[in-house]
């Protein structure tokens, strides 16, 4: 998969609020099952499984089958394409923060 497709895949995966919430719960756990993710989520087990599949295909989570359970864990390197893409714009941030700092000083001296 080329770099642009990888970035698009990561962005599409994280664009969905429910999927982002699933990813955040996976990130906060060492490993977690679909059943655990379903509990208290208000989303069906089938929907959680589909969200996990999308996250896995984007390289954001990995799975480990054990018996009847499949355990999911975050793959931080899956965010690398997004981080790399955003780093191209890093030069804009220091100037923007300086402008914000100056504006805040003007508003509240």
Radius of gyration: 18 Å
Name of the CATH superfamily: Winged helix-like DNA-binding domain superfamily/Winged helix DNA-binding domain
The CATH architecture term is: Orthogonal Bundle
- How many helices does DSSP assign? 6
Q: Using the coordinates above, name the CATH class.
A: Mainly Alpha
| Elements, N to C (H/E) | HHEHHEEHH
Strand content: 5-15%
Count of strand segments: 3
Distance between the first and last residues' Cα: 52 Å
What do we call the CATH topology?
A: Arc Repressor Mutant, subunit A
Structural class: alpha+beta
- What is the averaged pLDDT score? 89
Name the shape in a single word: elongated
Domain count, please report it: 1
Largest beta sheet: what is the strand line-up?
A: 1-3-2
Give the low-pLDDT segments.
none
- Fraction of residues in helices? 55-70%
The main pleated sheet reads as: 3 strands, antiparallel
């Amino acid at each position: 998969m080329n770099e642009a497709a990888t970035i698009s895949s990561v962005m599409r995966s994280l664009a969905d609020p429910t999927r982002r919430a699933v990813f955040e719960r996976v990130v906060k756990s060492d490993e977690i099952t679909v059943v655990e993710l379903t509990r208290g989520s208000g989303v069906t087990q089938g929907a959680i499984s589909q969200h996990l599949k999308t996250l896995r295909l984007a390289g954001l989570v990995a799975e480990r089958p054990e018996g009847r359970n499949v355990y999911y864990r975050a793959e931080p390197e899956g965010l690398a394409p997004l981080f790399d893409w955003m780093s191209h714009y890093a030069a804009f941030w220091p100037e923007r923060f300086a402008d914000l700092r100056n504006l805040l000083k003007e508003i509240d001296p």
